[in-house]
Design brief:
With about 350 residues, the protein is of the alpha/beta class. It is about 35% helix and about 25% strand. The chain is built from 14 helices and 17 strands. Bound molecules: S-adenosyl-L-homocysteine.
Length: about 350
């Protein structure tokens, strides 16, 4: 509980913490942060993601980006990039599936944006033949057409929460009660970034802001608008944030987000409207937000699932069938997860998406 004590000292010295600062410490504290200290993925970890459920996810995304690359004239050199690549599973599946796309691998330079040392090591092992280069931020990506994937990256960025007052907002903060971390509300503020939300909210409604996501998305969108490329942003969330979606997971079980700082995964739903507006302001076109299940069906996941099923029997067949269902069924990940595509004007949207 070293991080708990550090956060407590910080509150004693400086007063209550914003949720964004708390999340940032919990997830990425250089010594005690959740991502700094572990590989959290898979059955033995805290949560499982789509590429860890089935190889089909990464394969279809790889083929989708390869088609977008072909649709833009197959640029001779481009960055194939991923934000928060986890264990490198998605990218490894994408690269295997695109082996036979003429010229794609020769033109691709692999760039990974990753903050976690243990996950970087996993990526190094999974992707060694493709000589990836790692970056701390998108700012250092090369000036090349950018074909990028981000799966469950934006949900891992810190958010701030604001509770609607009569005609303003009070920020949800973290303070101390006895020795425990507790939520409270800060003083009333007026926020230009939330001015438009006064129209669709009422007193006591809660809205979330992910300030960290905006410059990242803006950087990507500027690059795509100026040098070409496409991005697929896949995450759970809705068009517009409303309500408390902060979630802590430990060993696949929901837990108290303030209970054990740095020991649980903390995430929040993504507000796709903000990401789409940021893309537009940067001169990039964006697709409509498409449910993951619809996107994968359009890319042919059922045909791929049937082909893979031919070689499977018994428990492996059962788990393959349930993986297909988990990724696509509206009651599983199919509807909760959405896909936002970014692409330049005068090019078609990446396959599976509509403008
Ligand atoms: N995309 C992977 C992993 C999702 S978990 C998958 O689908 O399996 C979130 C990923 O984002 C992890 O790799 C985590 O280390 C990384 N990450 C979280 N915050 C980050 C940040 N601020 N900068 C770079 N990487 C970050």
């Amino acid at each position: 509980m070293i991080l708990h004590d550090l956060i407590k000292d910080r509150i004693i010295q400086n007063g209550p913490l914003s949720l964004a600062d708390y999340m940032s410490d919990c997830l990425l504290h250089p010594e005690h942060g959740y991502y700094t200290t572990r590989d959290p993925l898979g059955a033995d970890g805290d949560f499982t993601t789509a590429p860890e459920i089935s190889q089909m996810f990464g394969e279809l995304i790889g083929l989708c980006l390869a088609q977008a690359w072909i649709d833009q004239g197959s640029p001779a050199s481009f960055s194939l990039a991923e934000l928060g690549p986890g264990r490198g599973t998605l990218m490894a599946d994408a690269l295997r599936a695109t082996r036979s796309v003429p010229g794609f691998h020769q033109a691709a330079q692999l760039h990974l944006i990753e903050a976690s040392p243990p996950l970087k090591e996993a990526q190094r092992q999974a992707l060694a033949p493709f000589a990836p280069q790692w970056h701390d931020t998108v700012e250092t990506l090369p000036e090349l057409p950018l074909f990028l994937i981000a799966n469950e990256f934006f949900d891992a960025l810190p958010i701030a929460q604001f509770v609607r007052d009569e005609d303003g907002w009070r920020e949800r903060q973290i303070g101390l009660q006895d020795d425990a971390l507790v939520f409270g509300l800060g003083p009333r503020t007026q926020l230009t970034t939330l001015q438009h939300r006064l129209e669709d909210t009422q007193q006591d409604d809660l809205v979330e802001l992910c300030a960290a996501g905006v410059p990242i998305l803006s950087n990507i969108a500027h690059r795509i608008a100026e040098t070409g490329g496409a991005a697929l942003i896949i995450d759970y969330g809705d068009w517009r944030s409303l309500g408390d979606t902060l979630q802590a997971l430990c060993g696949h079980t929901p837990t108290d987000p303030l209970g054990a700082p740095g020991q649980a995964d903390l995430t929040a739903h993504v507000d796709f409207e903000v990401l789409a507006a940021t893309a537009k302001a940067a001169g990039c076109v964006h697709s409509r937000v498409t449910p993951q299940g619809v996107f994968l069906e359009r890319l042919g996941i059922t045909t791929r699932a049937q082909a893979l099923a031919q070689a499977l029997i018994g428990k492996r067949l059962d788990s393959h069938i349930s993986a297909h269902r988990r990724l696509t069924h509206p009651e599983e990940m199919g509807n909760l997860f959405k896909v936002l595509g970014l692409f330049p004007t005068h090019t078609p949207p990446p396959p599976g998406l509509e403008s």
